[in-house]
UniProtKB/TrEMBL annotation:
The keyword Phosphoprotein does not apply. Pfam families: ALG3, DUF1899, WD40, WD40_4. One of its GO terms (biological process) is actin filament organization. This is Coronin. Keywords: Coiled coil, Repeat, Signal, WD repeat. Residues 137-201 form the DUF1899 domain. Residues 1-19 form the signal peptide. GO terms for molecular function: actin filament binding; mannosyltransferase activity. Belongs to the WD repeat coronin family. Residues 20-54 form a coiled coil.
Length: 625
C-alpha cells in the first residue's frame, strides 16, 4: 500500500524537486545580481566621493587665490584710502554669506542625497561639472574670443567669374592690396583674371570679355603674388612651364600673353608656386615629376634642385626667416629640408589617410598640419620640428572629403581652416597653454566654396578693426568678400590688434640668400594705414639684367609688360645668332678654297702642258665656290 502511494505521488515529487532546483538557481542569480549592483553602487559612491573631494580642493584653492589677490588689493587700497578697505571687507563677507555658503551647502546635500546616476548628473552641479571634465576656473582670456565674420553685399563683391573647374587641389585665388587674381576657365589654354582693388567700378558683375592673362598652353593650376612687389605674379600650369608676369598699376586693358620670363625645368605639370618670404625674386616651384626647383626670377636662373620626394609634393612652406622648408608628399610623410642644399633634416608620417595633406610653419617654429585619418576623417595637428612623429595636438573634425587649406595670420596667431567644397570657415587661436589650439568660432555660408584667397594684413582696414579678409569663390561664379572683425567701441588705432606686420620690402637679395645669409622679415606699422605704392625702380645690380625691376610703365594705356625692352632683347639675340652663322660659313668657305687651291696645284704638276683637262674642271669648281 505504501509502495503504491509512493508510486502515485512520485511524478508530483519529481516536479516539486525540479521546481525547487529551478527556484534555487533563480535565488542564487538574484543574489549574484544584488551583489554586483551593490559593488557597482559602492564603486560609484567612491568615484563620486573622489570627484567631490577633487572639486572641493579646487574650489578651496580658487578661494585661497582669490583671498590672496584680495589681500593685495586691500593693501594697495589701504595705502591710498583706509576707509575703502573696511567697506570692501564688509561687502565681501556679505557676498560670501549670501552666495558662496548656500551654493556650498547645496552641493553637499546633493551629494549626500544622491542615489542614482541620473540624480547625480542632473541634480548635483559638482558631479555634473566633474563628469563633463570641466574645471572651476576663470574663462580663458583672449582678445579674439568674439571675432565674427561678415559677408559684404553682392553688389560689393565680384560676380560672373568663370572659376576653373580643374580637380587640382589649389585655392585658385591670390590677392594682395592692389589686385585680385582668380584662375578661370579658358578655351585654347590656361588663363587667369586680374582685377584691381582700388577701382570701385570693378566690383559687381564682371564683363564676359574682360582682359585675361593667357599665355599658358595648358590649364593654370596655381598662382602666387610676389610679397615684395605687388605688380609681379607667378603662375604654374599643366604645360610644365612657370611664367612670371608684370601687371600695370591700373590693371589690364587687353589680354596679356607675353610674360616677363619663362622658367622651364619640370617635365610634368607644375602645381605649386611659392615665393620666399625674405629674399628678393626667389621663387619655389614643384611639379608632378616629384621635383622642386628654386629660382632667381630676376635673372631667370635656377639656384637649387631638390630631388628627395618619391611622389607628388602636395604643399610647401618656408619658415619665418626662410631658412627652413616644410613639405608634404603623397607618401604621407612630412619633411623639413634645408632649402639651399635639399638635405632632409627630419621627416615623419603626417596623417594616416591617403588623401592630400597640408602643412605650414607657424611664426615661432611650430608646425600645423591638416589631413585625413585611415577612416577618411579630417584632422588637424600641431607638432614641434624636433618631434614631428609625436603631435602635441591631434583633433578629428568631420568626415567630409574636401582638402582643408590652413590660412595663417602670424600677427594674431589665428589659423583659418577652409575646406574645398565646405560652406564654413573655422578659425582657431594658437597659444602656449593647453590645449594649445583653441577653437573660436565658425563662419557659416549657404553655398559651398570652390577656392579662397586671404588678404595680407597690409590690405586690411584698421579703422574698422578688421583683422582678416577673405575672397571666397563659389560654384555660381561669385567671388564673395568676407571680413573678420574684432568688435571694439573705440575708433582709435588698436595697437594690441595690429602689431608691426610684414612689409613689401625684402631683407635679402637672391645672391645673399643662396650664399647662406638669413634675415628676419622687415616689418611695418599700420598705425597710419597702408597705401600701396606705385611701381618703382629697384636699385640692384646683378650679373644679368634683372627682369623684375620695379620700372614704371612708360604709358598707362599700353600693354601690361615692358614690350620695348623685350623686343630689343629679341632683336639682339637674333643678331647675335646671325653673326655666329656668318662666322661659321666664312670659316667653311676658307677651308674649301684652300682645298681647291691644293687640288689645282696637284693637277698642274701631274698633267703638264698636254693634260686631260682636269685643270679646267677644277677651275670651274673653284669659280662655283
Amino acid at each position: 500500500m505504501h509502495v503504491a502511494l509512493l508510486l502515485m505521488f512520485l511524478p508530483a515529487i519529481k516536479r516539486y524537486l525540479s521546481s525547487y532546483a529551478t527556484l534555487d538557481k533563480v535565488i542564487n542569480q538574484l543574489k549574484s545580481d544584488v551583489k554586483k549592483k551593490e559593488a557597482k553602487k559602492k564603486k560609484e559612491e567612491e568615484t563620486l566621493t573622489k570627484m567631490q573631494q577633487k572639486f572641493l580642493d579646487g574650489f578651496e584653492k580658487q578661494l585661497q587665490m582669490a583671498d590672496a589677490r584680495q589681500r593685495n588689493v586691500n593693501k594697495d587700497a589701504a595705502s591710498k584710502s583706509p576707509s575703502s578697505k573696511e567697506t570692501y571687507e564688509i561687502d565681501f563677507a556679505r557676498v560670501t554669506q549670501l552666495f558662496i555658503l548656500p551654493f556650498f551647502i547645496t552641493n553637499l546635500i546633493g551629494v549626500a542625497c544622491a542615489r542614482s546616476l541620473h540624480y547625480q548628473f542632473y541634480c548635483c552641479p559638482c558631479y555634473a561639472f566633474s563628469c563633463k571634465k570641466m574645471s572651476f576656473r576663470v574663462v580663458r582670456s583672449s582678445k579674439f574670443r568674439h571675432v565674427y565674420g561678415q559677408a559684404l553685399k553682392r553688389e560689393q563683391c565680384y560676380d560672373n567669374i568663370r572659376v576653373s573647374k580643374s580637380s587640382w587641389d589649389s585655392t585658385f585665388c591670390a590677392v594682395n592690396p592692389k589686385f585680385l587674381a582668380i584662375i578661370v576657365e579658358s578655351a585654347g589654354g590656361g588663363a587667369f583674371i586680374v582685377l584691381p582693388l582700388n577701382k570701385i567700378t570693378q566690383v559687381g558683375r564682371i564683363p564676359a570679355d574682360h582682359p585675361l592673362v593667357g599665355g599658358h598652353k595648358g590649364p593654370v593650376l596655381d598662382i602666387a603674388w610676389c610679397p615684395h612687389n605687388d605688380n609681379i605674379i607667378a603662375s604654374g600650369s599643366e604645360d610644365c612651364v612657370v611664367k612670371v608676369w608684370h601687371i600695370p598699376d591700373h590693371g589690364l586693358i587687353k589680354t596679356l600673353t607675353e610674360p616677363v620670363v619663362d622658367l622651364i625645368y619640370h617635365q610634368r605639370r607644375v602645381g605649386l608656386v611659392l615665393w620666399h618670404p625674405t629674399a628678393l625674386n626667389v621663387l619655389l616651384t614643384a611639379g608632378s615629376d616629384n621635383q622642386i626647383a628654386i629660382w632667381n626670377v630676376g635673372t631667370g636662373e635656377s639656384l637649387v634642385h631638390i630631388d628627395c620626394h618619391p611622389d607628388i609634393v602636395y604643399s610647401a612652406c618656408f619658415n619665418w626667416d626662410g631658412s627652413k622648408l616644410l613639405t608634404t608628399c603623397k607618401d604621407k610623410k612630412i619633411r623639413i629640408l634645408n632649402p639651399r642644399t635639399g638635405e632632409v633634416e627630419s621627416d615623419a608620417i603626417c596623417h594616416e589617410g591617403t588623401k592630400a595633406t597640408r602643412a605650414i610653419f607657424l611664426r615661432h617654429g611650430l608646425v600645423f598640419t591638416t589631413g585625413f585619418s585611415k577612416m577618411s576623417e579630417r584632422q588637424y595637428s600641431l607638432r614641434t620640428p624636433d618631434a614631428l612623429s609625436e603631435p602635441i595636438v591631434m583633433v578629428e573634425l568631420d568626415t567630409s572629403n574636401g582638402v582643408m587649406f590652413p590660412l595663417y595670420d602670424p600677427d594674431t596667431n589665428l589659423v583659418y581652416l577652409c575646406g574645398k567644397g565646405d560652406s564654413v570657415i573655422r578659425y582657431f587661436e594658437i597659444t602656449p597653454e593647453p590645449p594649445f589650439v583653441h577653437y573660436i568660432n565658425t563662419f557659416q555660408t549657404p553655398d559651398p566654396q570652390r577656392g579662397i584667397g586671404m588678404m595680407p594684413k597690409r590690405g586690411c582696414d584698421v579703422t574698422s578693426c578688421e583683422i582678416s579678409r577673405f575672397y571666397r569663390l563659389n560654384n555660381s561664379g561669385l567671388c564673395q568678400v568676407i571680413t573678420m572683425t574684432v568688435p571694439r567701441k573705440s575708433e582709435l588705432f588698436q595697437e594690441d590688434l595690429y602689431p608691426d606686420t610684414l612689409g613689401d620690402t625684402s631683407a635679402l637679395t637672391a645672391e645673399e640668400w643662396i650664399e647662406g645669409k638669413d634675415a628676419e622679415p622687415i616689418l611695418i606699422s599700420l598705425k597710419d594705414g597702408y597705401k600701396p605704392p606705385e611701381s618703382k625702380a629697384a636699385i640692384t645690380v646683378t650679373k644679368r639684367s634683372n627682369m623684375l625691376n620695379k620700372i614704371p610703365p612708360k604709358s598707362k594705356s599700353g600693354g601690361a609688360s615692358p614690350v620695348s625692352d623685350k623686343t630689343l632683347q629679341e632683336f639682339a639675340d637674333e643678331i647675335r645668332k646671325l653673326k655666329a652663322v656668318i662666322v661659321k660659313h666664312e670659316t667653311r668657305i676658307c677651308k674649301l678654297e684652300e682645298e681647291v687651291a691644293r687640288a689645282k696645284a696637284a693637277n698642274i704638276d701631274e698633267d703638264g702642258p698636254g693634260g686631260d683637262g682636269l685643270n679646267a674642271n677644277v677651275q670651274m669648281a673653284s669659280d662655283e665656290v
